[in-house]
Design brief:
With about 230 residues, the chain is mostly helical. It has helices at about 10-30, 40-55, 55-85, 90-110, 115-135, 150-165, 165-195, 200-215; strands spanning about 1-5, 135, 140, 220-225. The protein is about 70% helix and about 5% strand. Strands 1-4 form a two-stranded antiparallel ribbon.
């Protein structure tokens, strides 16, 4: 048995909360902001290619902007990690969360319609910050703003469990499927809340991000764990 210390940012609780945020934001931009996928840029790239090929340049720009904003978020995230860690006694991930919160407040103030391009860009920027900052749960690589990779990894570990009967593989699979379920939960809540009052999903995201910000002040948990098996 070995003592294993986890970072709070790697906990399943934080991963689940951020996955809900990811689902909420994707539902919001799709339903309210012109059917754009703010989280995973693959869909936007497909639509960009379609509109470029058909000569619809204005609509192509509508999908190019969130892609560029996503790229910008990765650059800024890496700069924060290298230069601002420990500033004002904050961890660099908390600084990223503060940027997400400020950007979301701006989106709340942007009315749907003419400002959709700006809103989608800001949300794509937020999602890139999040997916680049929170990349592990219990030491496993995962994503909080998209599900394809999580589905692949979770299923891979499930297949390994059926082959080896090692409980460790099954638990890894459950981590991935759990994150996916919370993403779906967030998307469902986003759809319901958008029908009631369109900024409500964003307000809930702000609450959840503030909760994660506070949770990161907690000390890492120390637990006993078996040595990791080779896969």
């Amino acid at each position: 048995m070995h003592l294993h210390t986890n970072q709070m940012s790697d906990s399943f609780r934080i991963g689940a909360i951020l996955a809900m945020v990811g689902g909420l934001l994707d539902a919001y931009t799709f339903l309210i902001r012109g059917q754009v996928f703010s989280n995973a840029q693959t869909g936007n790239m497909v639509l960009l290619g379609i509109h470029l090929w058909t000569g619809n340049w204005l609509r192509a720009w509508f999908y190019l902007v969130p892609i560029l904003a996503f790229v910008l978020g990765i650059f800024i995230n890496e700069w924060i990690k290298r230069h601002l860690d420990g500033l004002w006694m904050f961890h660099w991930r908390q600084i990223v969360l503060l940027m997400e919160i400020v950007a979301l407040v701006i989106v709340v103030l942007l009315p749907p319609g003419k400002t959709d391009t700006a809103a989608n860009a800001l949300i794509s920027f937020i999602c890139s910050l999040q997916v680049q900052s929170f990349r592990k749960v219990h030491g496993l690589q995962y994503a909080t703003t998209m599900c394809t990779g999580n589905l692949r990894s979770g299923t891979e570990y499930l297949v390994q469990y059926f082959q080896t009967k090692e409980r460790n593989q099954f638990e890894k699979s459950l981590n991935y499927y759990g994150i996916i379920l919370f993403f779906i939960l967030g998307a469902g809540m986003g759809a319901i809340f958008c029908n009631k009052w369109h900024p409500l999903p964003l307000v809930l995201c702000l609450i959840l991000l503030c909760l994660v910000f506070l949770m990161l002040f907690q000390k890492p948990e120390t637990s006993s764990a078996e040595p990791k098996s080779k896969s």
